[in-house]
Inverse folding.
């Protein structure tokens, strides 16, 4: 199956928007074993969009478009697909009702333009959108499947997962498809992972294995092409065991796992509650933990003590600790963790204090220095990391290190 | 001048790499007043790359390629451009010397494959690369200019700025270049902004004006093509005044401004300190505020009170308020804000409590209900927003609403 992705919107050509949508779809299609041959970006221009669609129609079996489904006059995808595929637009009453209800349920008045979104090429199957008003659609003709998806990323992803993925999966089953699993690794860098797995990488055939650098972590992707899912999963499982034998303690999860979810699950399973004391991360770790639905079962809350005064007053850090050891020190981190644990009344207290940058570095404690403290009734653990020079990246990585510290503590890996 | 960008590399089609290069080039070309009509991504496949190049050659005056200039066998850009434009590859002694020197100066031995990078299509002008070995090149034929740039972003950007930009600037100056400004708007949605600006939009010529949906906000982009920068800025300024006359109170900033930076600047300028009480956002607002370097001047810290127990004990919310009004209520939000202000000792206290979802909604308080409270010595303001169904998006939007509430409070807009 040969696929093309067409991303529609002048904002993409102007560089106002980075084309994350195409990367998401490329990755999803690769997992399904569908080859993407071209990604084209075209502006809100009917003639050029029609040219692009005609070309894709001539050479692909599957076309995915994103964007141009909104209610305004520069949202041209519906009209141009209708023209290109000779399926004139028709109003769909059930979609109109749905759009009206969407606005009514939010007590908002519906601008008349939104009714444009109730028109679809003749024969198209509307695809619904939990996240907003823009409905997408699927159009089928001999040997070709077209999906028109919205351009707003969460809406697009939701629609892909709900409506596009199941359909493609059922088509691809016939041929033998690609199964893959991704191991998520925190700790060693990409080249260290590659070195340690070099023997396995050198002898790979099916499954194949590839390390990829991620956002402050490394992913190892294992890919296997088989007709039979069970056989593929067995082969993948064997490879996973081999990788775990070498770098098992750094593997925190698989596929869509996140450190916050994995660590959250461990807290929940072990009946442990957590309180945070954050300085340089400013609340980021709490925010990441609460990105996980149900996190209230183990996360009680925390104190963001950005100023030293708050470290002293709200967390009970002894002023002399800050004076002698510095606000960024393992001693202060432990005192902050202890304060969070005691004042919130949790099983674990975790603290992060560091120099996020770009200012505030010293020769002894350069930008990127982050101290972590973890306190339970049984133990206290402190550690210092030296991260990079970028403020937001440092915050993210400090969060990774903090979440991984809890994980390793619970799993007795530290 | 009609430009096309061709991004080369199978990793782009697989979604392993996001196409930031194309966004960078799109933005730079837009600034130069050069219209990009298409961005195409194609894999490391000679036939498909040749098709894409032939098509671009037929319809564009300017082609920029990125990627495929490395030393390995799947780096095919040199060969395929040579074939497509009938300019066979030739070895360039001066480039070979440069590559050898690059390795020698770093005390590294040069792999033989790197000599592939000394070959260029006949007539091409090599472009040098401070950041790595991959040299790019420029090829000119009647009415068409082709630049082949490396795929590694810092190398590509460096080469663009050093070699491509000056050349394009000298060409484009003759016609006039594009200046633009973006207004950032929080509050009304995209179609409401479009409706309210409809008269201006209908009569636009130069400058042009276009609303774009962003992440929980709307941007209005004003673009002006002129030979003279001063004249362009005057025309843009006039358009900005017209837009401000209609939706001024919702415009929080321009260009790269963020709500956290704008609100932070207002706090700093007015000598106001802030403390937060976050429930459903779990620390996100504190994290966003501390993304801004120097935020310690106005942000003292906060309390993430995820559990009701913490709302009561750490923020002093009366248990009966939670019982009678609910944890998600304006009364609880105000009590939380008061608790944060008093306990941290700040000028302003801001609280956010809501149902982020996907669970926890009720008929009266569905998922997406968020209550905000803001307390100063002079005033107390509470408000309720009804957001969407997506947890992470709700957290982000609640943060926008909270930051904007502070902004409007300081500016006396509420």
């Amino acid at each position: 199956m040969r696929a093309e992705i067409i991303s529609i919107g002048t904002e993409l050509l102007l560089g106002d928007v980075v084309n994350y949508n195409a990367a998401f779809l490329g990755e999803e299609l690769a997992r399904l074993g569908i080859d993407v041959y071209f990604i084209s970006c075209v502006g809100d221009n009917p003639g050029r969009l029609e040219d692009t669609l005609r070309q894709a129609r001539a050479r692909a079996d599957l076309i995915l478009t994103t964007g141009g489904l909104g209610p305004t006059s520069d949202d041209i995808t519906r009209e141009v697909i209708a023209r290109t595929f000779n399926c004139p637009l028709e109003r769909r009453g059930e979609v109109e009702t749905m759009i009206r209800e969407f606005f009514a349920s939010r007590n908002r008045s519906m601008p008349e333009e939104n009714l444009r979104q109730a028109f679809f090429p003749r024969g198209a199957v509307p695809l619904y959108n939990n996240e907003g008003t823009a409905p997408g659609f699927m159009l089928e003709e001999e040997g070709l499947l077209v999906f028109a998806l919205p351009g707003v990323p969460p809406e697009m992803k939701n629609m892909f997962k709900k409506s596009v993925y199941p359909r493609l999966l059922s088509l691809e089953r016939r041929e033998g498809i690609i199964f893959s699993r991704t191991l998520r690794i925190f700790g060693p860098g990409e080249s260290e992972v590659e070195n340690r797995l070099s023997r396995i990488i050198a002898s790979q055939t099916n499954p194949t294995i590839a390390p990829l650098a991620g956002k402050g972590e490394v992913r190892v992707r294992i890919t296997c092409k088989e007709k039979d899912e069970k056989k593929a999963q067995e082969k993948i499982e064997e490879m996973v065991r081999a990788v775990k034998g070498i770098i098992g303690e750094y593997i925190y999860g698989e596929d869509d796992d996140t450190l916050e979810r994995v660590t959250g699950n461990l807290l929940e399973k072990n009946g442990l509650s957590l309180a945070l004391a954050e300085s340089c991360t400013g609340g980021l770790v709490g925010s990441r933990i609460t990105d996980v639905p149900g996190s209230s079962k183990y996360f009680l809350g925390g104190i963001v003590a950005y100023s030293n005064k708050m470290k002293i007053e709200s967390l009970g850090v002894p002023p002399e600790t800050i004076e002698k050891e510095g606000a960024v020190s393992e001693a202060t981190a432990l005192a902050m963790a202890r304060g969070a644990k005691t004042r919130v009344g949790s099983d674990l207290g975790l603290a992060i204090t560091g120099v996020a940058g770009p200012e505030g570095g010293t020769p002894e404690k350069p930008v990127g220095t982050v101290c972590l403290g973890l306190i339970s009734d049984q133990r206290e653990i402190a550690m210092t990391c030296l991260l990079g020079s970028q403020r937001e990246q440092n915050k993210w990585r400090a969060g990774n290190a903090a979440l991984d510290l809890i994980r390793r503590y619970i799993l007795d890996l530290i």
Observations:
- Chain B has three domains: 2-172, 177-254, 259-410.
